Amino acid sequence: MKHLVRDIFRTEGYVFATKAREIAASHGHKNPALLASNENPFPPSSHALEAASRALSTVHRYPDERNEALREALTLHYGSHRFVTGVGMDGIIETIIRVLISPGDSVAVSQPTFSFYGIAARAQGAEVVPVQREADFSVDPDTFIRAAHGAKLAFLCSPNNPTGNATPASVVGEIAEGIDGLLFLDNAYVEFSDKDYLPLMKNYENILIGRTFSKAYALAGLRVGYAFVPAWLEPYYRRAETPFALNRVSSAAAAAALADRNHTDAIISHVTEWRERMTAGCHLPAFPSSANFILIDVAPMTGEKAVEALAARGVIVRSCSSFPGLEDHYIRVSIGNAWENEMFLTEVNSL
Predict the structure, then answer these.
(1) What residues contact 40, with CB distance under 8 A and at least 6 apart?
(2) pTM
(3) Which 3 state secondary structure label does DSSP give 108?
């Protein structure tokens, strides 16, 4: 029955960092430094855990289809905006593509970047138009606008995964002004940067800003995504989203995590301090980052070889070979606990 499977999924899919863990285990490392998945090294806020625990007693009922409690928490935190939710950022991406894209439509993707944009778009039958970043990984707005001509949807990640750099809000606005379709601005890592893109929502009707509770709020395992959307888009999103997708436990934990600013501020402070220390302390070229990870050039090694070498020493990092538009001599290293970061510096500097 394999012949029934669509061609795209015969050869393509999201790449997980599992091989490195297997290598580390084979070398006897039972507690390796886990720096491959841009996870938060700290547990969630105690308030989030308590709210999740309370919500468990109600899971015999379907969740509120509009996630009103979470939406109210988002409004209290950010002010008056229109919000939609999803199962992680991935859920937001898939739903927006479902709303806008028919087979044969064009979707522009700034790259190198998160591979799921292209995977999800092609799964909907879209033609993906790659928009290559500059040599320093910055985004040239004129190049982007030309490439996105006629595209119904365009993806731009800022701070960008895996390069870590943030695109100025003025450049994002210039792109929104110049393209025909909707600009999906992925802000998964924005809490670790000094950028504020929300004022753009007042000036452009073709910008959606996607965010997540997986990073700064330490809820990666509960999969909570949300987005700021223009008024015209909200009703169509709600028609297309998967019913009852965001569960009661995740929604309750996210609302409580959002309110515990002291916890989040401490995490952000840790990340920004260690991001600077790791960038300065690594003997290999490390790129400036506004996220909770850094990109490192390991040439003349390939990314895969560097991952294998570090895994054998008990440090799990991510090869960037699966990121479209990026040459295979880079690794991405998350900011972890202090001992993990110290271990990484020791081992990478002895390669």
Answers:
(1) 214, 215, 216, 217, 218, 220, 267, 292
(2) 0.93
(3) strand
Structure tokens at 38: 């841009």
Torsion sign over Cα 239, 182, 197, 221? positive
338 Cβ contact partners less than 8 Å away, ≥ 6 residues apart: 274
Same domain? For 268 and 235 the reply is no
Instruction: Calculate helix-pair angle for 338-348, 303-312, nearest 10 degrees.
Output: 110
- The residue whose two tokens read 């002291």 is 262
CATH of the domain at 308: 3.90.1150.10
Domains: count for the chain:
2
Under DSSP, is residue 207 helix (H, G, I), strand (E, B) or coil? strand
Distances (CA, A) of 130 to 15, 27, 226: 19, 39, 25
Residues forming a β-bridge with 155: 109, 184
Could you tell me if 159 and 177 lie in one domain? Answer: yes
- Per-residue pLDDT tens digits for 312-343: 999 999 999 989 899 999 999 999 999 999 99
Range of the domain at 71: 59-259
- What is the token pair recorded at 324? 């479209």
**DSSP, res 81:** -
Q: CA angle at residue 169 from 273 to 321, to 5 degrees?
A: 65
Query: Would you say 83 and 226 are in contact if contact means Cβ atoms under 8 Å apart?
Result: yes
Q: How far apart are CA 303 and CA 23, in angstroms?
A: 15
Distance CA 52, CA 252 (A): 6
Q: How are the residues of the chain apportioned to helix, strand and coil, as percentages rounded to the nearest 5?
A: 40, 15, 45
Summarize pLDDT for 29-80 with one digit per residue, the tens. Answer: 889 999 999 999 999 999 999 999 999 999 999 998 888 999 999 999 999 9
